[in-house]
TrEMBL record:
TM region(s), chain numbering: 7-26, 72-91, 103-121, 133-153, 158-177, 208-227, 258-277, 289-309, 315-333, 345-366
InterPro entries membership: DUF6056
The name this protein goes by in its record: Glycosyltransferase RgtA/B/C/D-like domain-containing protein
This protein's UniProt keywords: Membrane, Transmembrane, Transmembrane helix
Organism, as annotated: Chryseobacterium taklimakanense
């Protein structure tokens, strides 16, 4: 089979596997909330804004998380939208999915990204994270593209085609998506606009002023949401209540997260740096390459410094920085002059990796869904004899032979969801008891 036809075939198989993985992905942690019937998403988000989670991504999460078909459609949208945004930053244009060469590049970028990130599944299959984080990063990466297109590549073709009203809407949405990334977008916009104005004695493109202002408006709407005050009280810390020792401790935790969850990424960064030192004179890199890499690392590093303020850390908060680090590596490898025979080998290796990864993904998520169905079936069966349910088996979503590789597909194994003490309830137990109208729930 020729490379072009093979690329289209792999693209189809990957999308099919993403759809199946989203469909089979078991109910995990916060998703137990969605076991109850469908509510008006606008009223539900109104309640979230004032009491629970004011991020705009929560609205999209609420919309899709109760309907399997919507989960699958949203999963495909997030997967292809995210990697199209990566491609856009790499090649300064969206991929043409009718072109076999574009599909090849697209798949290689996806394979490289998935290989280097050890928690892909939770970011793309688990709707509370895909809705609140991965989906929002499509907008962030789009902003990074507009930023580099104008300030690095001195182009505004793409910017000109965006209607001002749409840009304002995108900006407000981008500002409302997250507490950590929009401040970085605003800071980098301010610095670039200031330098541009000082150097050229004129303001940058009007739309590159309107977009950040819109982001700022959206961020204010998010920042002053009543739910944030409730969240601050629950964790015992306020937004600007920063203790220097706690900040340093959080930053050290961030570094540990990278070395624990992204060992392949750290090794690749070091090897790429060594390779760059060896080949720098042969690569003939221009200033735009170095400036792009500097901008990506600036976005990534400043975001990490802001994330360290957060009282609650997690891999999802590092996803933007991690994505930009991987984007920098892709940019570097794109500039390498690789012989044709090695390119074909690289294509083949990427295709094989994607096939293996997503075949395992479908298998693992299917097994996890079966485990979920078995546990819930046992609950229903034992409820017939009373409202006090004692389970023989609890949730366990991990596939034994995958070992630590289960984290590439699942947020957690679920074994802690239901404990052996009927007098205390985990958050998941409370939701399960409410849904099935139980008095008590425990495992043997």
């Amino acid at each position: 089979m020729k490379t072009g036809k093979l690329a289209f075939f792999i693209f189809f198989i990957v999308n099919l596997a993403v759809a199946l993985s989203c469909y089979f992905y078991p109910v995990t942690r916060d998703e137990f909330y969605y076991l109850d019937g469908y509510f008006n998403p606008f009223i539900e988000y109104y309640n979230s804004y004032f009491h629970i989670n004011p991020r705009l991504g929560q609205f999209f999460t609420n919309v899709v998380s109760r309907v399997p078909v919507l989960e699958v459609m949203f999963g495909l949208l997030v997967f292809n939208g995210f990697f199209a945004a990566i491609y856009l930053n790499l090649f300064q244009r969206f991929p043409n999915f009718r072109s076999s060469s574009d599909v090849c590049r697209y798949l290689i970028s996806a394979a490289f990204f998935i290989f280097l990130i050890n928690y892909f599944g939770e970011m793309f299959f688990y709707t509370p994270f895909s809705g609140n984080y991965t989906f929002t990063h499509i907008f962030y990466l789009f902003f990074v593209f507009l930023y580099t297109e104008y300030y690095v590549f001195k182009q505004d073709d793409f910017l000109k085609r965006i209607p001002p009203v749409l840009l304002v809407l995108f900006g407000i949405m981008t500002g409302m998506f997250n507490e950590h990334v929009p401040p970085v977008l605003l800071l980098m916009s301010f610095l670039a606009a200031g330098y541009y104005t000082f150097s050229n004695r004129k303001l940058p493109h009007t739309k590159l002023i309107v977009f950040p202002v819109s982001i700022f408006i959206g961020y204010l709407i998010l920042f002053f949401a009543p739910a944030n005050r409730i969240k601050e009280k629950s964790v015992g810390r306020f937004t600007f209540d920063i203790v220097f020792q706690d900040y340093l401790l959080n930053f050290s935790k961030i570094l540990k997260h990278y070395f624990y969850y992204n060992q392949e990424l750290m090794i690749t960064v070091v090897l790429s740096a060594v390779l760059f030192i060896i080949l720098r004179k042969k690569m003939h890199l221009d200033k735009r390459f170095f400036l792009s890499i500097a901008i990506y690392f600036s976005f990534a590093s400043i975001t990490l410094f802001i994330v360290a303020i957060s009282p609650l850390l997690g891999t999802r908060l590092l996803f933007f920085s991690t994505s930009l680090i991987i984007l920098s590596l892709l940019m570097f490898f794109k500039e390498l002059q690789i012989p044709v025979r090695w390119q074909k080998l690289f294509f083949g290796g990427s295709f094989v990796f994607l096939l293996v990864y997503f075949c395992i993904s479908v298998f693992a998520t299917f097994n996890a869904r079966e485990n979920y169905e078995n546990v819930t079936s046992e609950i229903l069966e034992k409820k017939r004899t009373g409202d006090d349910v004692k389970l023989k088996n609890s949730f366990n979503y991990f596939t034994p032979f995958l070992g630590n590789q289960n984290r590439r597909f699942f947020l957690e194994n679920g074994m802690e969801y239901i404990d052996r003490d009927p007098s205390t309830d985990t958050s998941v137990e409370l939701k399960v008891k409410h849904h099935y109208q139980l008095k008590s729930l425990m495992t043997e």
